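Hello,

Following up on my earlier ticket. Below are the two sequence lines again, exactly as submitted.
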Amino acid sequence: MNKMAKGAIATGVGVILLVGGGGTLATWNQAQTAAMGSVVSGDLNLEVNTATNIGKWTNAAGTVVDIKAYRVVPGDVLTYTQDLKVTLTGDLMAAKLAVTGTGANTSFLDKNVVVAPTTIKDGVKAIAADDVLTPSVNGHVVTASTTFTFKSSTDARDSAATKAYEFAGVGYKLVQQAPPAANAS
Amino acid sequence: MHTPRALKAAGLVLAAVVLGLLTVQGTYALWNSAVNSNAGTVQAADFRVSLTDGPTNTTTDMTVNGLPATVALSTTPIGVVIPGQSVYAGVQLGNVTNAGGDFKIRATAGTPGITDSSGSGFASVLSVKAVAADTLAQCQSAALYAGAKNMASVDIAKNMTGVLCFQVTLDASAPGRLQGKSAGISIPLTVDQL
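Thanks for your patience. The regenerated structure is below:
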């Protein structure tokens, strides 16, 4: 018997054995679905709410001003407001909303201007940097507000005219806080 | 196998970077979202007041390089002043500002300082009256100075002008020995933001 024939016989025996193994299907078995469903992630997002207030400066008279062209004089009080939409979903979702980039970047003298710390309000309720936000505020539009005051007491023209206060670095950050069990993972 | 030192160093740095990233990556494990305020820059206006002399129409800024400027006013009529008569001068002040909001100023002519140039006493027989006006041309009108005092002020809105007129009178009783004498008159101008 040549090698080719021996190989064919061995293959055939193997196939027969495999078919024989199918006999295990003859014993009982039962299956159940786990019904585990789907794990769905939550969401965290912070965005400018363009539908209501993309960000605007107003002067003491309540007039909206173009800050690129507007020049302040002693006694001017300008307020910047901006609406932010908060998205917070997830059963254990918790986050803090903070103002970033508030370091003064200015050529004004400190004695001549006052920049009040930026405040964020959800309706009438102020949100502090340490406040932990939960999904209860999901979809809320909060309002950030910053006030710049050029003091009326500014008297020396040479040290106060044509100065600038840069706010471009100011931003807002929504940061998730670790769920209680997160440290274990 | 011989490994060059540079390769070893590179490997060490790479391992350090990988370890470092692995160490800090936990801070990225939680979500965060940030937006910029795009609040821009608040810029202060300039505070400029221009001074224009009437007859010569010469204009200068009230301050130059932070120092008070001096403007020499020409009188009308030009020449000698006769006892009992007056000469007139005026300065037009311009509120030249780039302020974004309202920016009204008040220009005030203070108490005139009259000084003899030779100690002749000529200054004692000169008097100055100041008054606000709308145009420099009005300064030559004697009627304008009825009831005027030696100080006056004018309010000037943004990008507008105001005029302060001056009347210099030689007392009718000035003695003849003062003929040919001269005196200098200095009038301080101050401008305040309202």
